[in-house]
Design a protein that fits this description.
The protein is built from six helices and seven strands; from the N terminus they run βαααβββαβαββα. With 170 residues, the protein is α+β, with helices and mostly antiparallel strands. The protein has a seven-stranded mixed β-sheet, with helices on both faces. The termini are far apart.
Length: 170
Amino acid sequence: MSDLARPAPALSPMTRFGPDDAPRILAHLLMLDTDDRMLRFGHGIRDEGLASYVARLDYVRDHVHGLNDARGDIVALAHIAMHDGDVDFGLSVTRPYRGQGLGHALFSHVIAMAQRGGAARVLCYSISPAVLHMAGLHGFRRSGGNPAAPLALQLPSPAPASLSRSRAAA
C-alpha cells in the first residue's frame, strides 16, 4: 500500500507533558537521526546530550506539548520556552509521521501559547527548512533585514482589561 493510500493514524489530542513524561520525551528525541538532531537543535547532539537536555526541562516555566500515537509514543513534540516577553521553541516530528500536518499543528500551537502567555514576540532559531517555511507562512521576518537575526513574529499587544470589558458590554 502506498503512503498516500494509508489511512492517517489515530493520535491523541495535543497533550502538555510533565516530569513523569521525561522517559517518553527522551525516547522521542533519541529516534531523531543525526541530520534531524542538527535541524532540531542547531548543532550535533549525542544521546548523552539529549538525556541532559531532557533532565533540564523546566515543566513549570516552559511548555512541553505534543501528540501521542495509539501506543502512547510521542510522535510530535514542541518545547516552548518563555522568557522576558519572548518565546522561543523547538519542534520535532518522527519520520513516519511527517507530511501529515503535525508540524503545522505544533507551530500554530506555539503561536497560540505565546499569545495566551502575553508574549510580545515569538523567535525562531531553527535551521530546519520545514520550520523556516512554516515561519514564513505565519509571518515571521528577520528584524532590520539582518540575515543573522532570528526570525521573529511580533504579536499584537493584548487589549487592556478595561477595554476588553467595555467592548464586551457594548
